[in-house]
Amino acid sequence: MPLIATDAFRSEVARARPTRLVVMLYDEAINGLAAAINAISDNEIEERCNRINVVTEIVATLHLGLDMDKGGEIAEQLGSIYRFILGQLIRVNIHSDSQGAAQIIDVLKPLRDAWVEVDKRLAEGEDMSAMEAAMLRRVEAAGNRLTIHAA
């Protein structure tokens, strides 16, 4: 089944703040991994591959969107996490590793929650330095969750 953006989704993307777009990408990645886990359990190889490929594109987009000049330590740590996830997605796809996919979800969820908080604070006009400190704490915590088993 092809994965197609709905008109409602396109409309939401067109009017969303950049931080909201990041949250939407995380949501799609998490949902894609959940769908891949279901495909693995149902032995639906094509569906698993399609879902993992979409998640790979999302994580690569997040990685390419990092501003390494202005993002400082947060961008460096997110880049490291994204590169790790990209490597693990290959492993998940090759080995039909539902546990590895679930562990990636466990890494993405706290990052998604951090972006939700940043988006909310930004909408409320909160001080950027306070947001950066909160985001850095959450990124470091997510980085500490990188315990996905090796092949």
From TrEMBL:
SUPFAM superfamilies: Flagellar export chaperone FliS
Entries under Gene3D superfamilies matching the protein: Flagellar protein FliS
Key words, A-Z: Bacterial flagellum biogenesis, Cell projection, Chaperone, Cilium, Cytoplasm, Flagellum
GO biological process: bacterial-type flagellum assembly; bacterial-type flagellum-dependent cell motility
Classification via InterPro entries: FliS, FliS_sf
GO cellular component: cytosol
Domain of life: Bacteria
Location in or out of the cell: Cytoplasm, Cytosol
Family that this chain belongs to: Belongs to the FliS family.
Name of protein: Flagellar export chaperone FliS
Gene (UniProt): fliS
